[in-house]
């Protein structure tokens, strides 16, 4: 099993869109649903990134305009500037 970590940073002035939750969904990253876990538990993203820098995500397939990809595990970190 390979380790294919992806790291992205929120774009300037998009702090409020970094991460949020919506009923019946998993975490949503980015105001344009840059990355999110849909109500069907599949990880998806729109082609293109709104709030985050572009992340090269290998897609499994496309469905309804979304790129669908597999996620084995994910971690989210908040960095606070002192």
What's the short version?
It comes from Rhizophagus irregularis. Helix content is 0%, strand content 23%.
Q: Can you walk me through this structure?
A:
By secondary structure, the protein is mainly beta. It has one domain (1-82). It has strands at residues 19-21, 27-29, 35-37, 43-45, 61-63, 66-69. The protein has a 6-stranded antiparallel β-sheet, with no helix packed on it. The mean pLDDT is 81. This is TLDc domain-containing protein.
Helix content: under 10%
- Please identify the structural class as seen in this structure: mainly beta
Low-confidence residue ranges: none
Write down how many β-strands occur, each being a DSSP E stretch of 2 or more residues.
Answer: 6
Strand content: 15-25%
Tally of helical segments: 0
Main beta sheet strand tally, sense and closure: 6 strands, antiparallel
Secondary structure layout plus pairing:
Blueprint: E1 19-21, E2 27-29, E3 35-37, E4 43-45, E5 61-63, E6 66-69
Keywords:
single chain, 82 residues, mainly beta, 6-stranded antiparallel β-sheet, 23% strand, globular, TLDc domain-containing protein
């Amino acid at each position: 099993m390979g380790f294919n970590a992806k790291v992205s940073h929120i774009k300037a002035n998009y702090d409020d869109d970094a991460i949020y939750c919506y009923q019946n969904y998993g975490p949503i990253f980015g105001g344009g649903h840059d990355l999110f876990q849909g109500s069907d538990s599949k990880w998806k993203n729109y082609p293109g990134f709104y709030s985050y820098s572009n992340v090269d995500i290998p897609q499994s397939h496309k469905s309804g305009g979304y790129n669908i990809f597999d996620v084995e595990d994910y971690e989210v970190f908040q960095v606070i500037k002192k």
